[in-house]
Amino acid sequence: MSEEEGERVRGSGVSGMSELLAVGRYEFRMQARKRSLWLATAVLATVIGVFQGPRGPRYLPADAPAPEVMAGWAMLFGIVVPLAFGMVLADRLIRDRRLGTAPLLESLPVRPGLLLAGKYLGGVAATGLPALLLMLVAGGYETVHRGDPLILGWAVLAFALVMLPGLAFVAGFALTCPLAVSAPLFRVLFVGYWFWGNMLTPDFLPSLTGTLVTPIGDYQASWLSGELALFAGVPGWLNFLRPEPGAGSALLSIALLLLLGLLPLLVTHTVLARRRHAA
Amino acid sequence: MDIQTTGLTRRFGKVTALHSVDLAIPGGMYGLLGANGAGKTTLMRILAGVLPPSGGQVRVGGHDLATGAGRLAVQRRLGYLPQDLGLYPDLSPREFLDYVGLLKGLDDTRARRRQVDELLELVALTEVAGRRMKGFSGGMRRRVGIAQALLGDPALIVVDEPTAGLDPEERVRFRTLLSGLAGNRTVLLSTHIVEDVAQTCQYAAVMAGGRVVYTGMVTELVRVGEGATWEVVTGVGVAPPAGVVVSAISRTDGTHYRVVSPTRPSADAVPVTPSLEDGYVALMQR
Fold first, then answer.
1. In terms of DSSP H, where are the helices of chain B?
2. A103 in reach of chain B (CB within 8 A)
3. pLDDT computed for residue A277 by the predictor
4. Listed residue (A242, A223, A257) closest to A71, CA to CA
5. What is the dihedral of CA A190, A97, A172, A32, to 10 degrees?
6. CA–CA separation, A183 vs B113, rounded Å?
7. B154 CA to chain A: closest CA distance, Å?
8. Which terminus in chain B has less CB density within 10 A, N or C?
9. Handedness of CA A91, A94, A97, A98 (dihedral sign)
């Protein structure tokens, strides 16, 4: 190929959008090909789906409104499935060093922030796909069971409002924290955090359970179903993070989860940039 | 794309990997020789914009690598094959090259795909282009590595120890490929394998202990070994002669040693015509 042709093929790349999408697309592809992602999701979802307690969506009355049914499924999956996602995503950033691809990536004309953001987007998309499929399967089951075709639409909405912000939150931390602690240690800490911060009743020990920053989507599910989903707003530690459930608090919870998920990315980007320029 | 370093220094904590390196690299194929730990990889990483220098100046094609804009300008015309390049096991060579091509700013999908296919053919990987790279041999991985370095028709190609670990046939093929690429480009070949430089480069630099100890024509480096390269034949079981033994071959009349030594290693030592390896060893002895 001639030099002139090479220049023509090469885009301007000024905005960085195509590079961001490229990283996101290929990270998604690589993560979606990880067998453990699908296996762990399937096992956890099957266990929680089959052995759900009497408060589970399967036991809701036949005339229960569709949003309540699907919010219940989203909460149910959201309680355990992100555990698997946190485990799977924990090696995605550090593996560039382990595999030896990092020097090549760093030599390419792409800003490090774009690489990080692309990996994040790819991670969210790759974990979002099995979560969405789970919701569609549950939605399909409920459509047949309850005979309401609109349930599938509510399944998608419940996924977007209840599960997705939590997945974005988990992806931000799971990608970056293993840079500071090792991936195995992060996984142990993550499991501990998950049970402490999402499932421990607020009156038992000081916990983040039932706050706006609970990634299982307690506030959003409560808003959709019109009832208290789990512990949203129950008085406890950090009461200012426990407003009454409703539309406003649900949207605030979504915004906080998304921002908190971005926070470790910003910190990581800043630290890596400083390290890189420290001669 | 010419390369100019002035007083280039790189420290890692208390360790100085590069000591005030002054180097002028013109276009064409250029060899960088040195033992492991000589500072070659550090220099390569600085030239690729992966590592910032601790001091001194680096200009590549007129761009100052100390500035973000300069680094980006160089990286847009760079093909870099790092030492021990890793590949994503979950991607095929075609996907990996497509990914790198996108990150190099090759936005035209059809043109990029055509170039990827051409490069896969060039490195003889067309047959496995769609197979995931998990389980690829060292040679196949290197070929993917060189193909990605050639994406986007780079004006500067930096290859770090590209033939280490390859079998002889692969090495020859790789060297031929690199030589063919030089033309109007700058190809910087960093290696500790003297033969690779002997077969491909007209000019070379030698590094030792983070310093450049030689720059110039390869033929001149060979001449460093003149008057210092000897052949000595000893009886079986006799200790090897003084100096650096470059080779030892057992024959029926005894062991034939090729020795590099500034002084005649023994009374019966015969001076011989030096090779590049002899010149390199003689230089390292100084």
1. 40-47, 68-75, 93-103, 109-122, 138-150, 168-182, 194-200, 218-223, 276-285
2. yes
3. 67
4. A223
5. -90
6. 36
7. 8
8. C
9. negative
Q: Please give the structure tokens belonging to residue A261.
A: 């998920």
Q: Which residue has the tokens 């070929």?
A: B143
Using alpha carbons only, give the angle B94, A17, B118 rounded to the nearest 5 degrees: 25
By DSSP bridging, strand B15-25 and strand B28-34 are unpaired
Q: How far is B213 from chain A (nearest CA, A)?
A: 24
Of A219, A212, A208, A215, nearest to A169 by C-alpha is A215
Report the side by side order of strands in the sheet with B28-34.
B78-81, B156-160, B186-191, B28-34, B203-208, B211-217
What integer is the mean pLDDT of B219-224? 93
Q: What is the average per-residue pLDDT within A160-184? A: 95
Provide the residue type at A113 as one letter: G
| The two three-digit tokens of residue A2, written as one number | 């001639």
Output the six-digit token pair for B225.
Answer: 């070994």
Give A139-159 pLDDT, tens digit per residue.
999 999 998 889 999 999 999
**CB-based contact A194:A229 (threshold 8 Å):** no
Residues 228-267 on B with a CB inside 8 Å of A are none
User: Quick one: pLDDT band at residue A15, thresholds 50, 70, 90?
Assistant: low
Smallest Cα distance from A33 to chain B, Å: 7
Q: Which residues contact A180 (CB under 8 A, 6 or more apart)?
A: none
Distance in angstroms (rounded) separating the CA atoms of residues B105 and B133: 23
Q: What pLDDT, in 10s, does the model give residues B142-175?
A: 899 999 999 999 999 999 988 877 788 888 888 8
Which residue, among A210, A226, A220, A218, has the nearest Cα to A68 in the 3D structure?
Answer: A226
Please give the model's pTM, rounded to 2 decimal places: 0.88
> Tokens 């960093």 sit at which residue?
B190
Phi-psi group of B54: left, alpha or beta (phi > 0 → left; psi -120 to 50 → alpha; rest → beta): alpha
Q: Chain A contact for B106, CB < 8 A? A: yes
Say which residues have a Cβ less than 8 Å from residue A43's Cβ, sequence separation at least 6. Answer: none
b/e code B236-258 from CB counts within 10 Å (16+ = b): eeeeebebebbeeeeeeeebebb
Nearest to B79 by CA among B114, B119, B109: B119
Look up the ipTM and state it. 0.88
- Closest Cα in chain A to B108: A9
Residue B264's contacts (CB-CB under 8 Å, 6 or more residues apart) are B230
Considering only CB atoms, B107 lies closest to which of A11, A23, A276, namely A11
